[in-house]
Amino acid sequence: MRKHAKSWLIKTLIAIIAVVFVFYFGYSFKSGSGVKIAYVNGEIISGAEYQKAYRNLVEQLQREYRSLWNENLIKVFDLKNRAMDSLITQKLVSQEAKKIGLDVTEEEVREKIISYPPFQIRGRFDEGRYRSLLQNNRMKPEDFEVMIAQELRQEKIQQF
């Protein structure tokens, strides 16, 4: 092989192998968020959704058990399965709400956020406080609004 290392055939083969590795591994690393983890009545739960739910559970557990925190708690509380169960429940609740006509309006979401006490200063909603609290919790306003809409939808289903 060393005798023929300077030949064009060997160089071409090495180049082809290199290109295949670059595209294959580059694609697989980037496509992790697009992975379909599960289907719930035809609706997809993506890898990104699952990672976010899992990360939120871990962060919640870390806040709750600050002094006692260790990685073993993840296994004890079975966070991987809890994250998946939570996502499945959210999808099922959302689907049922749509079936029976219980939907959440933007106005309802806005009212819920405005009335949320941590976002108020002297009894009035403060947008600066709203944004800073969300930023401190590494959450975008859009994500928070989706979460509030899901909570309202679940409340409506329970009341129904």
Shape: elongated
Q: List low-confidence stretches.
A: 27-32
CATH superfamily, please? Porin chaperone SurA, peptide-binding domain
- Under the CATH scheme, the architecture is Orthogonal Bundle
**Structural class based on helices, strands and sheet pairing:** mainly alpha
Largest sheet: spatial strand order: 1-2
* Helical content class: 55-70%
Distance between the termini: 75 Å
The ordered H/E elements are HEEHHHHEEHH
* Oligomeric form: single chain
Q: What is the residue-mean pLDDT, rounded to a whole number? A: 83
What is the name of the CATH class? Mainly Alpha
The number of E-state strands comes to 4
Strand content: 5-15%
Helical stretch tally: 7
Tally of discrete structural domains:
1
Radius of gyration: 24 Å
Query: How is the CATH topology named?
Result: Triger factor/SurA peptide-binding fold
**Sheet with the most strands, sense and barrel status:** 2 strands, antiparallel
